[in-house]
Structure formats: C-alpha cells, structure tokens
TrEMBL record, chains A, B:
Its cofactor is Mn(2+); Mg(2+). The lineage of its organism: Bacteria, Bacillati, Actinomycetota, Actinomycetes, Mycobacteriales. Residues 4-348 form the Isopropylmalate dehydrogenase-like domain. The keyword Cell inner membrane does not apply. This is Isocitrate/isopropylmalate dehydrogenase family protein. It comes from the Bacteria. SMART domains: Iso_dh. It comes from Gordonia phosphorivorans. Keywords: Manganese, Metal-binding, NAD, Oxidoreductase.
Amino acid sequence: MTLPIAVLEGDGIGAEVVPVAVAAAERALAAQGVRAQWTPLPYGAAAIDSHGSPLPPETLTELAGFDVMVVGPHDSVSYPLPHRDAPPPGAVLRKHFGLYANLRPAQAIAGLPATAPDIDLLIVRENSEGLYADRNMAVGSGEFMPTPDVALAVGLVTRAATERIAEQAFAAARTRRGHVTVVHKANVLRLTTGLFRDVCFEVAQRYPDVRVDQQHVDAMAALLVRRPADFDVLVTENLFGDILSDLAAELSGSLGLASSINCSDTRVMAQAVHGAAPDIAGRGLADPIAMVGSVASALDFHAARHRDRRVAAAAEALRAAIAATVAAGIRTPDLGGSSSTAEFGDHLVAVL
Amino acid sequence: MTLPIAVLEGDGIGAEVVPVAVAAAERALAAQGVRAQWTPLPYGAAAIDSHGSPLPPETLTELAGFDVMVVGPHDSVSYPLPHRDAPPPGAVLRKHFGLYANLRPAQAIAGLPATAPDIDLLIVRENSEGLYADRNMAVGSGEFMPTPDVALAVGLVTRAATERIAEQAFAAARTRRGHVTVVHKANVLRLTTGLFRDVCFEVAQRYPDVRVDQQHVDAMAALLVRRPADFDVLVTENLFGDILSDLAAELSGSLGLASSINCSDTRVMAQAVHGAAPDIAGRGLADPIAMVGSVASALDFHAARHRDRRVAAAAEALRAAIAATVAAGIRTPDLGGSSSTAEFGDHLVAVL
Ligand SMILES: CC(C)[C@H](C(=O)O)[C@@H](O)C(=O)O
Ligand SMILES: CC(C)[C@H](C(=O)O)[C@@H](O)C(=O)O
C-alpha cells in the first residue's frame, strides 16, 4: 500500500522542521509496512519567485489529488506587495479545500516545564465562518469600507456549519473524557454566537453519554488559567478558537510546541500552530516538535477514516518518539537545550 | 465642596460589595474634606420588580445629572423574559452615556498569590464599536438573521472612535512606563482591525516619547502568559479587550479582584470586572476588593479632570487601605481567608 502525501514546506523555519517531520513519518510508516509517497509542491516566498504567487494555481490543482497534506508556516507579512495584502496562503488553503475543522490539542509534554502541567484539552475550532470575515463570502470579501474612515466586517454563523463542527467535538469527546464545553459570547453577540450555542446543545442531545456545558469566551480565557484540568473538549467559532488555542498551547508549555490539523470529512492538512519565525530561520535552532506532532495527528485522521491500524500505529510511534527524544535530553534551544533541529530529527529517526 | 455620586447596586453580591465601596470612599473623601453625596437609583432585578425594567427610564434620566456613577454587577441571564433576552443593563449604560473607554488595570496585590506576579498592565479597551455588534447601530441592532439558520453580525471600526481610544492609551502610557502595544488581528480582519492598527500608529506619532509596537490578539494571549512584564499599556477593540482583560486579571491573581472604569471625556462609571455571583450572594462571602478598586479609579478620573488633589488623595488612600487590609490578614474566602465582606469593609474604614 502507498500513501500519497503532499508537502508544502513554506517559509522561514519550514525548510527545517518540515523535512524532520517527513523523515520521521517516513520511518514510522515504513516500520508498519506503509510506503509513503511524498510530493513537494511550490508554496510560500519561494513560490512567489518561481511562480509569481505564494500559492500558485498549479499547487492548488495538484493538491486536489491528495487527501493528506503537510504544510509548513508562512511569513506572509514579509511578502512583497500585492501578496502581503492578500489573505495568508495557509488561510486560503483552509477555505479552498473546505477544511472546516481545526483540531488543536493542548497537553504538557512529560519532563518539560508548563504553566498548567495538568492541562489536557482538545480545542475544536470552527474554521469556515464565524467572526473571520474573510471566510464568509462565496464571492467577494466579508469586509468592506463604505468610506475611508469606516470599516465593516460581517461575521457569520450558520446552522449547517455549526452542526458539523459540533459533531466533530462530541465524537472526539467520546474518545476522550466525555465532556464538551461550548464557548460563545451570547450575552453580546446574541444572534450569531447564540445560534452557535443553541445548535451545539441540539447536537449534544444525540450524545447523551457526553457531558455538555458552556462558558463565555472571556470567562473561558480566565478559567484556562484557573482550573485547566476541568476541561476536556472546547468547541467554538473561528476567532475564539484562534485566541484560546494560542493561550492553551502556551499554558501547556509553549506555543512553539503546539500541533494542529485542519480537516474536512475526507481531507486533512497537518499545520503547526507556530509561525515561520524568520528571526531564527536557517540556523538549526527551530523546534520540530509541533510539526512532527501535527503530522502524527494527520495520520490519526487518515487512520480513523480508513480504519487503518498500521497508520494509527505509526502516529502513535511518532508521539512516543517525541517523548523519548525529549526524555533523552535532546532538546532545541527554545527548551533550554543545545541540540539542533537536525540532531533532534536524527534522534527521532533513530528511536523509530 | 460636594461630590454627587450615583449608586446602582445591581444584583447578587452587588448588595454586599457596593455598600462596602461606598462606605470606604465616603470615609476616604471625608478625610480629605470632600463631602460625597450618594444617590441610590433603581437597577437590576429589584428594578424589574419595582419599575418593570432592570434599567428603568427614570434611572437613565436621573443618571444624566451625574458625572460619577458606581455600578454593581448584574445577573441578566437570570432575569425573566423579555429582560433576559435584552442587552445586559451594564452594556446599555456604556452605550447610552457614550462611555467609549474601558480602562482595566492588571497588577498583582502584594502578598497574594498570582500566576504572573510581575504583571503590571493597563488594558485600554474600545467600548463603543468593534466586533461588539450590539454597539454598532444608532438605530436597530448590528446582528440579524436573514433565515432561521443564518445569523450575521456587523463589526465596525471607525477612524474617529479609534483616534479617541488611542489618545487615551498614549496619554495613559505617559503616566506609566511609556509603552503602548496595539492589539489587532489585521492578518485576517484586514480592513476593520487593520484600520484600528493604522489609526493607532498615526496617533503614536503625536507621542514620540511613547514606544509603540503591535501584536496579533492570538499571540498576545500567549505572550501575557510567557512574558507579561514586557507589556505596559494594551490598546484594542471591544471583544479582544473583553477577552484579554479577563485573562490578564486572572494572571494577576484573580478575575474576582479586577477593577475597571468605563468613561467618556466627562463621565465615569466604576464597574468591577466580576459578575453577580448569585451562588455566593447574601452570605457575606463576596470579596469587595474589585468594587473598591473600581471606585478608586473613578475618583482618579474625576480628580484628573478637575485637577482636584483631594479627590486624588482619597483614591490613593483607598488603594493603600486595600493593601493594608490584605496585609493585616483580613481576607475573604476566595483568598483563603475567613473574614466576611462586612469585616473586610469595617477594617478598610478603620484603616482610613
Ligand atoms: C496565520 C493566521 C491567519 C492563522 C489564523 O488566524 O487562523 C493562525 O493564527 C492560526 O491560528 O492558524
Ligand atoms: C457582561 C458583559 C456584557 C460584559 C462585556 O462583555 O463587556 C463583561 O464581560 C465585561 O467585560 O464587562
């Protein structure tokens, strides 16, 4: 069996962490008898030079043939105009392929310091609408300026999109500690986040075995600091999920270690939460843990969809290899270590 | 000289913490030779019973004659319909009186545990527009449902409102550590939060002595955990300010201790960040620190506006009295103590 995987390295530290994740996953899959077929595609600043766009049409066309993609960070604020002012390519990918769910676990890694060592969360972030106006129009943009001094943004919540993200959250809770917290701000954004809340509670009725409660997003931010262990799965709209997932990641150790996938029902994109970190790029300082973890989660997704135990085992092995490498004291400078990105990667592969 | 102050006790623990704040401020002002004239007005659940509305027209009319108001928490989710589904009265007050700035300091109290003991922030939150759709319409609501399955919310950023909130932030920074961080999400909400960012940087030019930088709201949430001491004043739109101020308050010790004022150029409303806490109401368990601190900040505002040193001294004395009372071990149960709300209040007054 062959597993085709598209690889978009991206900018900055992408050129360092993505190859580590690919090498580790290659090994983990091979150990299970699965042959991965990696296809690199033009993306990011390099693609502006070679193809005139950070996300060339050729890349989008090719990607349509892949169910699994590994996507590195982009540094879109440093792109030349007009690309700098266009939506970031990572966001365009989510929209183009209808990757409506962004799943972001937050859990401390044994042996590493954490503000909230007992946090063990899965944030299920709606990725296709909400207050992210750029997602909300089939044609045109959800923001506009009627005069140069007035800007408007249209937030959107639909029953259909809320139902499918709520399904993801409740289904995930069944495989975890069976508890979903719906995060909204329905005391102010009464109709939009109110609809989100109401539909989530309707979906909850199909999962009588899962406990459901709710929090306002402001209180939720404080509660993640005060009593993080009380929460299991959070389900929320796009912007709240963006903020809370960065917060939860930092509480669990470091934003730099946070992994994530974006998925539809059939397609998955591994994408670390961190950015391109141009300040440390090219010097072997980057921590590949987030990227490797993201690829492991993407393999989980593929394994669940195809009931493929070998791919599931490879994902599990990747996570175990991260833990073993950290435990062996192989750490990049962000964790106070002196290993390079490549040394971390070599150790990972050796463990695998 | 008499200083007229309106008092809206509100719901739940309001009936306990507001009287403590009034008694302490009365004493602090009297010690400076200032006679406060306190006028209680109907507000909250009690006003539904007596006047048919949590914010009766009579209260609004009376309030127009006051520059300083002390407002307790409301428990609007427990109001009978239709009041439960109406905008919360505390938010209506902000809109009605054009209280466009919400100032929320976050600083640890000496001797009390804090996740971030070195945090010392002022969050300057725009209070009149932004993603808070309920603020954004002169007529009607900024949210609507074209079909029962689709809800839209209109976010708004204007040059005028951004200029005046930025002025508040930069002026405040001059009295602090001279550093403003503009918090936005202009990589996604490009036009709205982009306009906010751009106007803040324009205003920054009038304050060459103040250092200015910027963060995306998601990164900001993580940075408040990672290196809180690096920030002085944050200026941001309504929703981001709501979330970040709860987070910062919790990091500085507890959301329950966080004070805040809402103000226009001429009017100020003291309003603690915490809610009505109906679960502990009426039992003497409530911590009045946030309410007393909010009244102190309101007195600061009044003192600055009228260049009144006696009122400024009273505000300073209130803060010193909180510190002295906590240092004397008089603490309510939320801080692990066994003092009642009233005992804390009595000690405050004795110190003053
Ligand atoms: C880069 C940015 C557009 C993106 C987002 O806001 O979704 C990022 O912050 C994330 O969370 O993946
Ligand atoms: C009660 C609620 C409407 C209010 C807000 O969101 O502004 C509160 O959370 C606050 O921060 O003062």
